[in-house]
Amino acid sequence: MQKRFLIFNNAKIAIVFLVLALMLFGCLNVYSASFVLTEASPGLWSPYVLRYLVFGAAGLVLMYYLGWKVDYHRLFNHTTKLFFLFFGLLLAVDLVGRAAKGAQRWLVFGPFSFQPSEFAKLAVIIMASAYLGKLMNRGKRADLLRLDSCAVFIQTLVLALLVLKQPDMGTSAIIVALVLVLYIIAGLPWSQLGILGFLLVVGTVVSVIIAPYRLNRVRIWLDPFSDAQGFGYQAVQSQVAIGSGGLIGLGSGRGLGKFFYLPEAHTDFAFAIFCQEYGYIGALLLILAFVVLGFAIYAIAQRTQDRGGFLLVNGINFLVVGQAIANMMMVCGLLPVIGVPLSFISYGGTSLVTSLMGIGLVISVYHDEVRREEREEPMKPPMPIMHDSYSYRTARRPKDRWKK
Questions:
Q1: What does the pLDDT look like over 153-198, one tens digit per residue?
Q2: Which DSSP letter does residue 226 get?
Q3: How many folded domains does the chain comprise?
Q4: Largest CA distance in the chain
Q5: What are phi and psi of 304, to 5 degrees?
Q6: Please, are residues 361 and 316 in contact by the beta-carbon 8 Å criterion?
Q7: What is the DSSP secondary structure assignment for residue 105, as one 8-state letter?
Q8: Structural domain includes residue 386
Q9: Range of the domain at 250
């Protein structure tokens, strides 16, 4: 597990370095994309930057605690409690949650608010990894026709339906997709996967048809310029911002899209502002950073013997890196607008903390695997004691020195 990864001594160091680098650029991007939204002087301590730093610091503390102080197996022992905790939180959102922009997704505690649905993504990964990991450790495959492996999928559907009610179809789809990926890795039969995929497609189509705004999103995705000043305005302005950056960009802080041309420039469409200010070269480097991060996490997963830890690391990889790729594809128009944040770059406290907690769990799996390898490493014979004036063989038989 201590094997070198590219220029780093090991994959853990690579992950920590890349996460901190991404957070640095994320902080700069939040500052650049948001300072026009406040009447305060455009200094470093704007409300948006301050909130990013506060949640980022909290996330780093939790990352350190989970990665260096907690054995991830302890979380596997409390999956039932985890389900009921998030069932209660998501139900509380429906009853007393704060509404904004037509959706009720936040719980408020004093000056802070958070989205339980973001934490639910990590929760379902932990739940599925615990259940399916036990099956794989016993040499069994996932099977939705057996109660011991379908229970977690039913729990996931319950949480996803509560998120869909907020309404938040994008996050609901991600929650189901994360667990479905883990089921596929755990050996779900192709026949069941085909039936399940068909049912999910039908459900998605029905949920899109019954909600006019979702149908408009699909229509605009296919042809955003058909309504460039209406429903397609955001998608068109996003592509304009990306294209206007050119090869090297307009320069840090000089992007024009954030001046009320591009809605949500500091949240879901932060990548468009990043491309406008740092150009195609900056965008390529950002994509490369996420690709390298994904391979570093994958390297840990491949060397993990515990099947629960293996599933946990892969699930978090899809959460952090997969979600980032989906966001960039959404901003570029390759996917419909579904409200997926760009990990470490977008402004969003709950998403940032969730990603950092996930990275902490990856490091916890890494440390557990290092300890396992140290326990199983065969004892090496002690090195012979060499003396200055005679060999090791002579030292074992001191009488031979006097033979003559």
A1: 999 999 999 998 888 888 898 999 999 999 999 988 888 888 888 8
A2: G
A3: 1
A4: 106
A5: -90, 120
A6: yes
A7: E
A8: no
A9: 11-372
